[in-house]
Design brief:
47 strands; mainly beta; four-stranded antiparallel β-sheet; 26-stranded antiparallel β-sheet
């Protein structure tokens, strides 16, 4: 019997020894509540090993290699924990309790959205700003770029958002119209969209091939939200004044159901800039049903309505008279400010997602999404009436102080000698002193109402009222009403211990209705739908319905549909080894565009009505990269990419409002990228040093403006026109470096630093073509090829080429904190005119032989065409906060977050553009030489001193 017991014990001991694993375990809790945290991501750096904490907050890693391992603990809303663990053979090390502290950058995200929504574009496209791409990033450099430099419209690596990919549940949210995301589609839902994953540059993503600016994946799966309720109330004076928000997450119940709801309202009667009203309502709901361990179904719906008054760009002259907060788009009506340039976004999103865990190593996620709604930009229209814009050039003092006599019979011959002005300077100083802008700086709504009505008089001829008449002024919207269907599927599979495969395919179908809609007759009875600048049948926007009298709610002017089909597929393989990780990926996409004209325009009678030919683009992409692990805490990282990219739909149909004609011989642009990084990750010190190179070739850009003297014509009036500018073959070269440093000086004090230095230039002399509708109306070709524009080595506009930040933060164990950062930004340039840099700039339109202006000299040309660089500036920001824990059966957390941005109220320009109205040398030289140019560049300004506070309750 003793032998039997001894033998049994021996066998059990052997089994126990051999069953022992090598690894460690731990329990993750909230620092405030001391409650366990579920679904926290625990991962071992430099491996593919990742696990989630269970309902008790516990995680375990088995079968690890002995030695030093770097453990990362990560959860949304908390600071990452990075721990060095010494693993011993045959032992499961118990790490005990791991405490996660609240991440204060989560509160900063709520402040950031006020910067993003101030889009400068004047059409229905998405945002160029890249700050939104980074708003939940943990990278030190990217946090500085978003929170500190976003107010200056800094763009990572000088790149536009069209080179990134923003996704919700793996579905791309980049618009097919312009390839950019429309941030307003989920604006005001910061709590609901906080679960995000990022990649930088062309690094690999599990969801898409991506671009050269990285990816942002927003996950709205209901079961991953932390259970609880959050109420908050915020105040600011940037784009809105007040915000109220509520979010509740149920967590997964025993029946397999989970749901999340969120709602917010943001509003302002007048925000930072004059006359900029704001009203936004946002709703979010996500509900998930877990059928079993393999299948779950999630439905997400997002409704984010946003209406806000826009602010104008202004010349230095306007700003010197009226201040940087001046906005020409508003005026008083019945004692209240009314903005004529409102922008409204209302495009609900509905998405159904199926999660299929095929086995322990393979998952398949599939989505169907339907998005619909409208984007509208309002503005004033007028016929046979004075321009209502108070900053119209003839209303400004500079109009009177930049006058010239250009009559060849009275101008002395010396004016035509090299260095001359080609005319005689004849300023009207009295007229300048009495310029209308001094007394009428805002839109006069009452005057427009009066112009649209006729007097009612009694028998004595005394006016006793006004009757509606034919409207000379109306308010209308440029509308884009989209209907978008998307279906996609994404596969992730662990092929072996060292290899992971990601693959995906998607199909998108867009119908975009674009039209001009009359919204307000401004007291009139109807409005005649004709073009007074043309003659005969060319006056008719729709020959099928000529001389229409339109009223509020009617479409007029232009009306067309755009159709787009997009097929996209990618595969990616990631390889992970002890010293080297590397990946390879490839993609294929096809985009098909088509226009359908619903009006037969009088100017383009034979090329405006009906459907155009389909325009197709096939594109490929390849990328790869590797990470060399110098040690467990030091890495070298390399990424490279080469891809072709279809032009956006808005650039294919350059005159889509009137014509089916696309740009001739248009081809895809090519994009290449290389970046190299040295990375350090330790529990107290983190650093990233990156050098990057991006080369974009054969880009296409279109724009619209009024040009004087742009065409060769002996009749001065005939050489002036409102034109579409088509720039093709445009190359861009972006090179530079990035640095991000973070050092935990003590357990309570942290120092950060970030730097970006780049050179973002045009790298070719593109071709410029102008489209003039007036020429088409006269039976001539509307396209005028101006040839090469000498843009090479000019700087890309509106981007600080240099940006530096240093910050210090104190975080007290009693849950209050304060921080400060100082930021220096420099080398931002104005947007130069392509037309002014073609040979037509020097060509005299009055010379029958096409010779250049005789008074022109090369030195003066260089002086006139030198690109303006904005002054550098320094911005100092303060942040702070405090949270309180209220104990009880249902404990509550209260918190207050406060920021003061630009505390020294520095005035600075964030962007601007040259006006190309003076499209030839003589007109520009005379205007500039006057000292008070009437068509000087227009600028946008950043916010001065602003505040933001947010009070919240979590329970």
């Amino acid at each position: 019997m003793k032998k039997l017991v001894f033998s049994a014990l021996f066998v059990l001991q052997v089994v126990f020894v051999f069953a022992q694993s090598t690894g460690f375990t731990g329990k993750v809790v909230d620092s405030k509540t001391q409650k366990p945290l579920q679904n926290v991501v625990a991962s071992i750096q430099n491996t593919t090993l990742t696990t989630l904490t269970n309902v008790s907050g516990v995680f375990t890693f088995n079968e690890l290699s002995a030695g030093s391992q770097l453990l990362q603990i990560k959860s949304v809303g908390f600071k990452d924990q990075l721990l060095v663990v010494e693993v011993e053979v045959g032992k499961i090390l118990d790490l005990g309790i791991i405490v996660l502290e609240e991440d204060i950058t989560f509160e900063q995200q709520i402040n950031l959205i006020t910067i993003l929504e101030n889009d400068l574009g004047d059409d229905n496209s998405g945002s160029e700003n890249t700050a939104g791409l980074l708003q939940a990033s943990r990278d030190v450099f990217q946090q500085a770029a978003a929170f500190n430099w976003g107010q200056a419209r800094f763009r990572i690596r000088g790149l536009d958002n069209e080179y990134s990919n923003t996704m919700i549940n793996g579905v791309s949210m980049n618009k097919l119209l312009d390839n950019r995301p429309q941030w307003g589609n989920w604006g005001g839902l910061n709590d609901a969209t906080r679960n995000q994953e990022f990649t930088t540059g062309s690094a690999p993503s599990d969801y898409t091939f991506g671009g050269i600016l990285g990816t942002q994946e927003i996950n709205t799966r209901a079961s991953i939200y932390r259970k609880g309720t959050r109420l908050s109330y915020a105040g600011t004076q940037t784009n809105y004044n007040w915000r109220a928000m509520m979010t509740h997450a149920s967590g997964m119940n025993k029946k397999g159901w989970a749901f999340v709801i969120s709602a917010s309202r943001r509003w302002a009667q007048e925000a930072y800039f004059e006359g900029t009203d704001y009203a936004a309502n946002s709703l979010f709901a996500s509900i998930e049903k877990k059928f079993n361990e393999k299948h779950s179904l999630n439905f997400t719906t997002i409704y984010a309505q946003n209406r806000r008054g826009r602010n104008s760009s202004n010349t230095n002259e306007i700003t010197s008279i009226a201040g940087i907060k001046y906005n020409s788009f508003w005026g008083y009506q019945d004692g209240e400010k009314r903005n004529s340039r409102d922008r409204e976004v209302e495009e609900p999103i509905n998405m159904l997602t199926h999660y299929w865990k095929i086995n322990d190593k393979t998952q398949l996620t599939s989505n169907v999404m339907y998005q619909f709604g409208k984007i509208g930009n309002s503005r004033l229209d007028f016929v046979n009436a004075a321009n209502p814009d108070p900053t119209y050039y003839q209303n400004l003092p500079s109009y009177f102080t930049s006058l010239y006599n250009n009559d060849p019979e009275t101008v002395p011959s010396s004016a035509y000698e090299p260095g001359g002005l080609g005319g005689v300077f004849t300023p009207n100083l009295i007229g300048a002193m009495d310029a209308p802008f001094f007394t009428n700086r805002q839109i006069d709504w009452n005057a427009m109402y009066r112009a649209n009505t006729t007097p009612i008089v009694d028998e004595n001829g005394i006016e006793i009222g006004r009757a509606p008449g034919q409207s000379s002024y109306v308010l209308y919207e440029d509308r884009t009403d989209d209907k978008l269907f998307v279906a996609n599927t994404i596969l992730s599979s662990q092929l072996s211990d060292n290899i992971v495969m990601n693959a995906g395919a998607s199909y998108s179908r867009l119908k975009s209705s674009n039209f001009q809609m009359l919204t307000d007759l401004l007291g009139g009875s109807s409005f005649l739908d004709t073009d007074p600048f043309q003659e005969g049948t060319a006056q008719q926007p729709d020959l099928n319905n000529p001389n229409r009298q339109v009223r509020a709610g009617d479409k007029y002017g232009y009306n067309y549909n755009l159709f787009a089909d997009h097929i996209d597929a990618f595969t990616q393989f990631k390889f992970t080894y002890k010293k080297i990780d590397f990946y390879l990926a490839q993609s294929y996409s096809r985009k098909t565009y088509q226009r359908e004209g619903l009006y037969r325009n009088g100017i383009y009678a034979n090329s405006s009505f009906g459907k155009s030919d389909k325009i197709e683009f096939d594109n490929f992409g390849f990328k790869g990269g590797l990470t060399y692990k110098i040690s467990g805490q030091q890495f070298l990282n390399f990424n490279s990419l080469y891809m072709s990219k279809a032009p956006s739909m808005r650039n294919v149909f350059f005159n889509a409002r009137l014509s089916n004609l696309p740009i001739r011989d248009l081809k895809s642009e090519t994009v290449s990228n290389l970046d190299m990084s040295y990375i350090i990750k330790t529990p107290t010190f983190k650093a990233r040093f990156t050098g990057f190179f991006a080369n974009i070739k054969d880009a296409t850009e279109t724009s619209f403006f009024f040009a004087e003297g742009a065409f060769e014509d002996n009749d001065a009036d005939e050489s002036d026109a409102f034109v579409a500018e088509i720039v093709t073959g445009l190359d861009k070269l972006n090179i530079g470096g990035e640095v991000g440093l973070e050092y935990q000086i003590t357990s309570t004090i942290k120092a950060t630093a970030a730097a970006s230095y780049g050179q973002y230039t045009y790298n070719s002399n593109p071709n410029v073509v102008l489209n003039d509708d007036s020429r088409a109306a006269r039976g001539l070709s509307p396209l005028v090829n101006l040839g090469e524009s000498k843009l090479k080595n000019y700087r890309q506009p509106g981007i600080p080429n240099q940006a530096y930040a240093v910050g210090l933060e104190y975080r007290d164990p009693k849950f209050w904190w304060v921080g400060a950062n100082v930021n220096y930004l420099a080398d931002t340039y104005v947007d130069v005119s392509s037309v002014l840099r073609t040979n037509s700039f020097l060509r005299n339109p009055f010379d029958a032989n096409g010779f250049q202006f005789p008074e022109a000299t090369q030195d003066r040309v260089d002086e006139l065409l030198k690109q303006e660089k904005f002054n550098p500036y320094t911005l100092v920001n303060l942040t702070g906060g405090k949270s309180w824990r209220v104990s009880g059966k249902n404990p509550i957390t209260l918190g207050l977050f406060v920021t003061l941005n630009n505390i020294f109220d520095v005035q600075y320009k964030t962007g601007g553009f040259e006006q190309a109205r003076n499209a030839n040398y003589r007109e520009l030289n005379q205007d500039v030489s006057s000292g008070t140019p009437a068509f000087a560049p227009r600028y946008f300004y950043g916010f001065g001193r602003t505040y933001f506070f947010n009070f919240y309750i979590n329970f």
